[in-house]
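re: the backbone from monday

yeah here it is again, tokenized this time
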């Protein structure tokens, strides 16, 4: 079997930069952290402008209707949308 298996001393060099008896380096975690850092820098500052007021009754009626789709009047924050869906669910005795 000589020569059939790859040279294990060299095939994992990036995982074991100090050799097999040295400290393990989690290359995947290091790469993930680098990419996350780049993504956060590219994203820029978070927009903290207050959300537009929700036309609650209009959205509640639209989402509770039996239509297949309903287009929201404007972007709505996810927590506000979840609250509206919870109100619909509770009104239908689903709670």
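seq for it, each position gets an aa:
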């Amino acid at each position: 079997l000589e020569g059939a298996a790859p040279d294990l001393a060299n095939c994992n060099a990036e995982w074991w930069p100090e050799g097999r008896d040295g400290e393990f380096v989690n290359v995947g975690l290091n790469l993930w952290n680098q990419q996350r850092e780049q993504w956060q820098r590219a994203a820029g500052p978070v927009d903290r402008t207050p959300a537009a007021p929700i036309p609650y009754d209009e959205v509640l009626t639209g989402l509770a209707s039996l239509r297949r789709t309903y287009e929201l009047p404007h972007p709505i924050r996810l927590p506000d949308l979840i609250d509206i869906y919870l109100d619909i669910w509770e009104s239908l005795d689903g709670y």
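The CA atoms of residues 79 and 85 lie 10 Å apart. The helical segments are 8-11, 27-43, 56-64, 78-91.
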